[in-house]
Write a structure and sequence with these properties.
heterodimer, A: mainly alpha, two-stranded antiparallel sheet, 35 helices, about 0% strand, B: alpha/beta, 9-stranded mixed sheet, two-stranded antiparallel ribbon, 14 helices, 17 strands, about 35% helix, about 15% strand, globular
């Protein structure tokens, strides 16, 4: 405890020093409006003097140039260019009168001395104005002049190096080959490299060895499985509805389409158009319609007592906001109820965007997890079986039609009720007969069969036959996945601004359209979802390309160039390297939105290839690696941890696609959450070892073996990354990891059973793609010997450990040795390096 | 923990600090200042609170929220209205319900028949608080309680209303009360999380309320602040137990090996995340000891167990969870959220309500008495209540007594608080003579949140987190501390 207290005190002292340093920091010269001034205005003034007209005080606004330089009716100018002392803005900010000072004390948003000096300097320098940077179309930045250009491999490196030179930092050396192949394999496939692949790469002396490795990984079918994950988070994909009831849905064919789209390198513009508006393309194919399942991945609320229209409005809002977040990096949610406080998005804009999605026939009623419109995605065998069953229904129904002709004689072409005796039949029998035989439901067929049971055996038998076939057809039909998709009604629903976002408080009518502060829809684009999708990927759109390249950057480097990947608006973080972001965005569009090419560009850069080894001095200068003077290093997502453990243990199942699977999960988790309503039925065999992307995702209680995942409830474009003791307990104790360790031990013991050093080295290599150092080998080998002694003394314990997991254990191996190495493999899988992509 | 383990642990730490101080220098120190969710302090798993917090001295150092999921009927339990009894079976007068929105199960309330409380009320204690005979034990501690009878909310369905009450927004995705407290004030224990959740449901209840994990989510705050749900079974924390065949000593050895290799890596790569990793694994080891110790009731005297009633030793019951809540706060857990479902009596006021009261009454009162006799009630705030109330008019057929029910009612409900600097034996707020609408001293759920934070030493307007460009807080843009409730 002593050490603890001492460190805390030192830390406190150090904190004081930092504050002193900050206070004395020189102000930027000259002041830049969008970098230095706009954020202050946004943070402290926009709340009452921003885009939201209803909240605006004194008719004064600082989000537009006209507003800020207005002179009021009494002739008072808020900002006088070049003269801070004459500017009302400064007078009010510095006022000591609590009734006069801005921002008002009750807002607790007072400016500090540095901010006030900045505003003064800006005004004195002439108060130049500008738009928020993300609303300007990106253009290729000029090539920077560099002192040491030889390091650069592509345009990324030029921009990174330019920034490093400004900070007087040097890039780090290239990582070694073992580190590079592990980094690349994890980044592009989510799996570790095999030992043979590592050896081959290490001995490949050809100059393009690295590039060929990249191409091989980009062509792997596992690439699509890796890339799909982040988009599934953005698409709030899950295998159940969410909310009470939480009915299981069958959206997985959409997930398979997604994996395929990545693997086939579908250009991102097409990817966008298909998912938002595939159904509206001329002669839309089944696949194009299927892609629009993206929009329908939202939660469905089947709670009793819910008002259908309120649900429906929720769903349309979700589609609107998901589109805003996933493509535009803007938060539209605030504008449900009022004009955005910080960004130029009005409530009108919100409902205009909303109108694009407000035309489907969805009613919002009930909790049907396959609510129409849907596309059926049947296998050919299923289709064949459906056809056969339809045929049989027809045949059986025809024989009943014939029988009924004879049983109920009546004039040609007349309905059954024209038969003389019809009126005497019981009411439910009349109702059943009024329906054509092929359309009668099982209950009606049963009614008729019961009525004639005693006096017409052959008719009763025919009815039973038909009932059986119809029931068989129904149960077969339930096995065919139906993916909820988009479709516009011919009769468009009208859209209104909703007061405070309330479904039952419509105000003025609005037409579909894009936010007024962004470029208009392209000429000739239809005013529907297709037009919206075309607009998102038009070269004039200042946001989409930036937002998307930023997210791919985040995937590789752990943090976006804009750290707030979810917010590119005025309150979002400014990019750490704006030139690099724009350069990438322009390249991406020019390449024809080629995603694999973008990935290739990033991973072949010298920036990416740097070692992630740092020095304390560098960590201190740039703790989050925003300037990129070293390679990326961060804890892998939990799904990737599981996949790498399965791969290292040789357990990973190859099969891709298909219905989701239920791997190991502690007993009772679903049952406890749903009061026994949902029973977890764990799968067996290969289904236990499928890639994590195929795991059944119950929306109200996500798979327990994953942590730090998106909730999959609403669109998420940035996953949390934290470290809690519960994570450690998972990777140390969950049967998934223990079994992987046991199987990894089995693998290496089958290769070498003689001395622990060799087994340890092989296991280490399978997980970390490198040889252990002497010291590491010593620690682990000593552990192996120690555990072997312990398990030899307690063979029952060894047997219990080796019984973990359902895969067969190799009984030829000595149990004490096998169990001992299982623990050592568990240690290896839990090393910081094993949990980290570096 | 056995002494040998303790010693080894100490050694590991000392070695680590020795090297960290020498090898990491300023980097290690700066990571102490760095609380971005990306790196934690390597020194301890105690997460520090924000600088400047608490904003003022806290009256409640710990909070227990006995959340009654499904909405208890204020009409039957606390809000005594003789006139409702007189008008039993009469249609609701228009003036009480004009223009109000109810769930689709009720639709329009026009013409619905009033339903008198099914059991009698009495006044209790010196304070003379009215409590139904359904709750004899709570009635017995009425002088400790502070009844807030003018509660009201915006949402009319369970999930949105619970989300509003616990996170300040109807749509899932915001940090909940416990997460805000953990974020603002930090964690005071090395061995347990700052925010623990437990759930239970009465046996035989037919309601289908589900405990969604966003009820204790951290929203956009780092996930380390989310509530850790202890399960109602022999294994309260998932993956807590070592794999079969692995002893605690072996686990200690494993962790020492892992730490030794991680330290090599730390020296080589200088990434403070590695130091975090070492601390994270140590904490997992301590939790493996502290959680079983927490759930070991063998040292509890029978007289204490008796306070909580007969179900107290059965994991997963409300009684067990109430006792566990006391044991958790004794171990410096800051916020315990005990959730009990089954209050959604749409057609079971005359049947399931009795079970529900039986299962919750004695444990709730027992917790108050237990805290009081240990001197913990003064600085522990206990809150008891649901997400809304129930309609004073009937759902169902007035002739079919067995199926009487009440629908969701957001316009008035009762919550009580105890300890933690709130007034004792006090009733605040009033509804009209049919318990339909608040007529005096209304308290919105945002006001309740502001008040709870206030007792924890937090100005609800100043505990904010910037997300998607906006400074969010628990009370959204509303909420006022209800000063009248404070002692």
């Amino acid at each position: 405890m002593f050490a603890f207290a001492k460190q805390r005190r030192t830390a406190h002292w150090w904190g004081v020093c930092v504050l002193v340093l900050l206070a004395a920091r020189a102000l930027p010269n000259p002041v830049q409006f969008s970098r230095d001034v706009r954020p202050i205005l946004s943070d402290h003034c926009f709340q009452c003097h921003g885009p939201d007209e209803k909240a605006r005080k004194a008719k004064l606004r600082f989000d537009t140039e006209v507003g800020a330089f207005r002179t009021d009716s009494q002739g008072i100018a808020v900002i006088v260019r070049g003269k801070s002392t004459e500017s009302e803005l400064i007078r009010r900010i510095e006022s000591s009168d609590p009734d006069d000072v801005m921002p008002p004390p009750k807002t607790k948003h007072a400016l500090n001395a540095e901010q006030i000096r900045l505003l003064r300097n800006w005004i004195d320098e002439g108060a130049p104005w500008g738009k928020h940077w993300t609303f300007e179309t990106p253009s290729t930045p000029p090539r920077p002049s560099l002192e040491t250009a030889s390091w650069s491999r592509n345009g990324i490196d030029e921009q990174v190096l330019s920034r490093l030179e400004r900070e007087e930092l040097k890039p780090s050396p290239e990582a070694n080959r073992a580190a590079l192949i592990r980094r690349l394999s994890l980044d592009l496939t989510g799996l570790p490299p095999r030992p043979g692949e590592v050896a081959a790469f290490q001995s490949d002396e050809s100059p393009d060895a690295f590039e060929r490795l990249v191409d091989r990984l980009l062509a792997s079918p596992h690439y699509g499985e890796r890339m799909a994950w982040d988009w599934l988070d953005a698409a709030r994909y899950a295998d159940s509805n969410g909310y009470q009831g939480d009915g299981e849905r069958t959206m997985w064919p959409w997930r398979d389409w997604l994996v395929k789209a990545f693997n086939q390198n579908m250009p991102f513009d097409q990817f966008t158009i298909w998912q938002l508006a595939g159904d509206l393309l001329p002669n839309a194919t089944q696949e194009q319609k299927l892609a629009t399942g993206f929009c329908r991945n939202h939660m469905i609320n089947g709670e009793g007592g819910r008002i259908a229209e309120e649900n429906r409005i929720d769903y349309v809002m979700d589609m609107t906001e998901t589109t805003g977040a996933a493509w535009l990096g803007l938060t539209f949610t605030c504008a449900r109820c009022h004009d955005h406080k910080f960004d130029p998005i009005t409530q009108q804009d919100y409902y205009r965007l909303f109108a694009f999605f407000n035309r489907t026939p969805v009613t919002g009623g009930g909790g049907d997890p396959q609510s129409k419109p849907v596309v059926e995605v049947a296998t050919s065998a299923q289709t064949q079986k459906s056809r056969g069953l339809d045929e049989r229904v027809k045949t059986e129904a025809q024989s009943i039609v014939k029988m009924e002709q004879q049983m109920f004689p009546r004039p040609e072409g007349q309905p059954l009720k024209a038969w003389d005796g019809f009126a005497e039949l019981p009411k439910e029998v009349q109702e059943a007969l009024a329906v054509k035989p092929a359309q009668r439901n099982p209950a009606r067929l049963e009614t008729l069969a019961t009525h004639w049971k005693t006096n017409d055996v052959s008719y009763t038998a025919a009815l039973d036959h038909l009932r059986n076939v119809i029931e068989e057809r129904t149960s077969h039909s339930r096995t065919i996945p139906r993916v909820m998709v988009m479709e516009d009604m011919a009769d468009r629903r009208e859209t209104f601004v909703l007061f405070k976002g309330l479904y039952d408080k419509p105000r003025e009518k609005v037409e579909a359209g894009v936010p007024a502060s962004l470029p208009p829809l392209p000429p000739n684009a239809p005013t529907n979802r297709l037009g919206l999708a075309l607009w998102l990927v038009s070269p004039e759109n200042p946001l989409t390309a930036r937002v998307i390249v930023n997210r791919y950057w985040q995937q590789f480097f752990g943090i976006g160039l804009v750290k707030t990947a979810e917010d590119f608006g005025a309150q979002g973080e400014k990019p750490s390297n704006p030139e690099l972001l724009d350069w990438l965005a322009v390249q991406f569009v020019r390449s024809g939105w080629n995603v694999k090419q973008l990935c290739r560009l990033i991973v072949t850069s010298a920036t990416y290839r740097q070692t992630s080894r740092a020095t304390p001095a560098l960590i201190e200068r740039d703790p989050q690696n925003r300037w990129l003077a070293r390679g990326p290093r961060f804890r892998m997502p939990s799904w990737m941890l599981r996949d790498t453990a399965l791969a290292a243990g040789g357990l990973l199942a190859d099969k891709g696609g298909g219905p989701p699977v239920n791997p190991y999960q502690p007993a009772g988790v679903w049952e406890e959450t749903t009061f026994g309503g949902k029973k977890y039925r764990q799968d067996h065999g290969d289904a236990l070892y499928r890639r994590s992307v195929y795991t059944f995702w119950r929306r109200i209680v996500a798979p327990t073996l994953f942590f730090d995942t998106a909730s999959r409830q609403t669109c998420t474009v940035k996953q949390p990354r934290t470290n809690t003791p519960l994570h450690a307990l998972t990777t140390l104790n969950d049967v998934t990891y223990v079994e992987a360790a046991r199987c990894l031990a089995e693998r290496v013991l089958a290769e070498t059973d003689s001395i622990p050093e060799e087994a340890v080295e092989r296991a280490f290599q399978r997980v970390l793609a490198r040889r252990p150092s002497e010291r590491e080998k010593e620690i682990l080998s000593r552990a192996a010997r120690r555990y072997e002694t312990e398990f030899s003394a307690d063979s029952a314990a060894a047997d219990r450990l080796l019984a973990m997991g359902e895969s067969k254990r190799n009984r030829l191996l000595a149990p004490a040795r096998h169990a001992a190495l299982t623990l050592v493999c568990g240690e290896i899988l839990n090393l910081d390096e094993a949990l980290t992509k570096e | 923990m056995n002494p040998l383990d303790d010693h080894r642990l100490h050694l590991t730490r000392r070695e680590f600090f020795g090297r960290a101080a020498a090898g990491l220098g300023i980097a290690g120190l700066s990571s102490l200042l760095h609380r971005d969710g990306l790196a934690a302090t390597p020194v301890s798993n105690r997460i520090p609170g924000l600088p400047g917090l608490p904003h003022f001295a806290a009256k409640a150092r710990r909070i227990i929220y006995l959340f009654q999921n499904g909405a208890p009927t204020h009409v039957e339990l606390f809000d005594y209205k003789p006139r409702l009894k007189e008008l039993h079976g009469e249609p609701v007068p228009d003036s009480y319900i004009g223009g109000k929105r109810f769930s689709t199960m009720t639709g329009k309330a026009d013409g619905k028949l009033l339903l008198g409380p099914i059991e009698p009320f009495q006044q209790h204690g010196k304070s003379g608080a009215w409590v139904s005979s359904l709750l004899p034990h709570m009635a017995g501690v009425a002088d400790e309680l502070c009844f807030v009878k003018g509660m009201h909310t915006d949402a009319v369905n369970h999930a949105p209303a619970i989300s509003l009450l616990l996170s300040g927004g109807q749509i899932p995705g915001r940090p909940t009360l416990g997460a805000w407290l953990a974020y603002g004030l930090g964690c005071e224990t090395d061995n347990l999380p700052a925010f623990v959740v437990m759930t239970s449901v009465s046996k035989g209840t037919t309601c289908g309320q589900i405990f969604y994990d966003f009820y204790w989510g951290s929203g956009f705050l780092p996930s380390r602040y989310q509530g850790v749900k202890f399960r109602g079974s022999s294994d309260p924390v998932l993956y807590l137990n070592n794999p079969d065949g692995v002893s605690r000593r072996m686990r200690r050895e494993m962790l020492d090996d892992i730490a030794a290799i991680n330290e090599l890596k730390l020296q080589d790569f200088a990434d403070p995340e590695i130091a975090t990793r070492i601390a994270q694994y140590e904490m997992s080891f301590r939790m493996q000891a502290s959680v079983p110790e927490l759930t070991d009731l063998s040292q509890e005297p029978q007289s204490v167990l008796d306070l909580y009633g007969p179900a107290v030793k059965e994991p997963g019951t409300f009684a067990y969870n109430c006792l566990m809540a006391r044991r958790l706060i004794e171990r410096d857990v800051r916020f315990v959220q005990v959730m009990h479902a089954g209050w959604d009596q749409h057609n079971s006021i005359t049947t399931e309500l009795y079970t529900q009261c039986r299962d919750t009454d004695q444990p709730s009162a027992g917790l108050i008495m237990d805290l009081e006799q240990r001197g913990l009630l003064d600085d522990t705030l206990v809150i008891w209540g649901g997400e809304f109330g129930r309609t004073p008019f009937i759902q169902g057929d007035i002739k079919d007594r067995k199926r009487w029910g009440r629908d969701h009612h957001p316009y008035a409900f009762t919550v009580w608080m105890a300890g933690g600097g709130v007034r004792r034996g006090f009733t605040y707020g009033e509804t009209d003579d049919l318990a339909m609408n608040v007529v005096k001293d209304p308290v919105h759920v945002h006001d309740l949140q502001a008040t709870i934070l206030n007792q924890a030493g937090i100005d609800h307007e100043r505990l904010t987190f910037k997300f998607q460009g906006r400074n969010f807080r628990l009370t959204d843009v509303h909420g006022q501390v209800v000063k009248e409730l404070l002692a």
